[in-house]
């Protein structure tokens, strides 16, 4: 009796130990599915074995129960490889799906980047095609992007078309403006202002430029500030100054300074403003100074003369007052400077002629280099 009960316990302990070891192993390495499978076998073993021990069944019955529990456990263990294979297959499928998704995302990003590069190159092709038709493939790519609402493509295509089909270009500009493309407002405003490709209309130009200004387009603010004194001879200068001051926090100080000075000059011929412009130009690299001086001839001829009087005085060609007036001594100073630079023939049209002024500017730039 004692030996039978001992064998009973030995078998029971062995089976429990086996189940516990397998359960522990699976809990670490195989996950919840296998731990649950093994635990089911262990629970069956405990119910059939331990419970029946406590009721002191005959030894043969207890051994039968233990055998049954062992069978249940062994059946559970036999199922483990199948479950393991299924889980590993599921895990492999999930990993493959994750990898495929990552590859697809990376490919999508690469495709978008390639499309952006292609569009940028196509826009450059249109921009640099000054006459004739641009490359058909580049044109088609930009047209497609513009149809999809790409803002850069809209303005790029309109800029390309304006000298070839102005009606289509204006329609494209207006469509882009309606969708909130502030660069299109800026571009169409400049076209109406210059009148090179469409009929000049300063009122429309100002209206479109204001739309771009209201969206804080910095180039529009700079441009409109330079227009205001020309649009309104009396109040335009003050309006330009106010515009620049109101947007000072988003503007480039170096670009604002000459515009501010030019506006002041238009308003009241402020000699202090002229000094500001002269100081600003003197701070530029030597190879840029003459170009900036030349640009002033289109903004304020008195300012241009005032700046050139300083240049001529430094070169020993002028000894009069720096007053911005084209006096006889100033004209002689211009002639002397042109002769010294060996461009006398280019200056015969007079100091305020744009061709003469450009020739003088280029000669001074070459001399500075």
Task: Walk me through the structure.
The structure is a single chain. The chain is mainly α. Among the domains are: 2-101, no CATH class; 286-369, no CATH class. 78% of the residues lie in helices and 0% in strands. The chain has 16 helices and no strands. Helix 2 (32-54) runs antiparallel to helix 3 (59-128). This is TPR repeat protein. InterPro entries: TPR-like_helical_dom_sf.
Main sheet properties: none
Gap between N and C termini: 119 Å
* Helix and strand composition category: mainly alpha
Question: What is the strand content?
Answer: under 5%
Instruction: Categorize the overall geometry.
Output: elongated
Oligomer: single chain
Determine Rg (CA atoms, Å): 44 Å
**Poorly predicted runs:** 21-31, 33-56
Count of runs of 4 or more consecutive helical residues: 16
Mean pLDDT: 79
Q: In sequence order, what are the helices and strands, one letter per element?
A: HHHHHHHHHHHHHHHH
As a percent range, the share of helical residues equals over 70%
- Care to count the β-strands? 0
Protein name: TPR repeat protein
Organism: Pacificibacter maritimus
InterPro entries: TPR-like_helical_dom_sf
List the helices and strands and how they pair.
Elements (H helix, E strand, L loop, with lengths): L1 H28 L2 H23 L4 H70 L7 H12 L3 H11 L4 H13 L3 H13 L7 H13 L3 H14 L4 H11 L6 H16 L2 H12 L3 H10 L5 H14 L13 H13 L13 H15 L1
Helix pairs in contact: 1-2, 1-3, 2-3, 3-4, 3-5, 4-5, 5-6, 6-7, 7-8, 8-9, 9-10, 9-11, 10-11, 11-12, 13-16, 14-15
